[in-house]
Amino acid sequence: MTKTHTVSIREVDRKFFKAIKDGTKITETRAATEKYRAIKEGDILDFVCGKDHVQKKVVGVKLFRTVEEMAGELGIKQIMPFVNSLEEMKQIYYSFPNYKEKIEEFGLVVFELE
User: Fold this and answer.
1) What is the pTM of this model?
2) What backbone phi and psi angles, to 5 degrees, belong to 23?
3) CA 104, CA 96: separation in Å to the nearest integer?
4) Could you state, in order of their start, the residue ranges of all structural domains in the chain?
5) Distance CA 33, CA 26 (A)
6) Which of 61, 75, 80, 99 is 20–30 Å from 86 (CA)?
7) For strand 52-64 and strand 44-49, is the pairing parallel, antiparallel, or unpaired?
């Protein structure tokens, strides 16, 4: 059974929302907490940024223990098209509230979007 999950994107991160909406960003990553581990292939992600919404179907799900492992397998640009280095990517992740700790505890989940 297909489920729809709401995924919030902060207004300050609108460039990520726009990239998902226009299809230039085909993956979404989150700390692999219980909430995000429940999302399965075939589910719908309803991305919300301010008053804007866009829905994308999940066509693949992968789990990683670390940012380095994820970037090594998928490449930095597939995950964050706007960054140029692993260090820059880590700085962005760690700028989100409690994300460094969440990643260390739960790892990361990557959703491949249709």
Assistant:
1) 0.93
2) 90, 5
3) 14
4) 4-113
5) 21
6) 61
7) antiparallel
pLDDT tens sequence across 36-85: 999 999 999 999 999 999 999 999 999 999 999 999 999 999 899 889 99
Token reading at 79: 């995950």
Q: Which residue has the tokens 């909406």?
A: 21
The residue whose two tokens read 């760690």 is 94
Which runs of E-coded beta strand occur in 1-114?
A: 4-8, 27-31, 44-49, 52-64, 108-113
Cα within 13 Å of Cα(58), Cβ side: 26
Cα 34 to Cα 80: distance, rounded to the nearest angstrom: 23
- Percentages helix, strand, coil for the chain (3-state, rounded to 5) are 40, 30, 30
Question: 82-105: b or e for each residue (b if 16 or more CB lie within 10 Å)?
Answer: ebeeeeebbebbeeeeebeebbee
CATH 3.30.390.10 fits domain 4-113? no
Question: Is residue 86 within 8 Å of residue 69, measured between CB atoms?
Answer: no
The Cα 86–Cα 10 span in angstroms is: 22
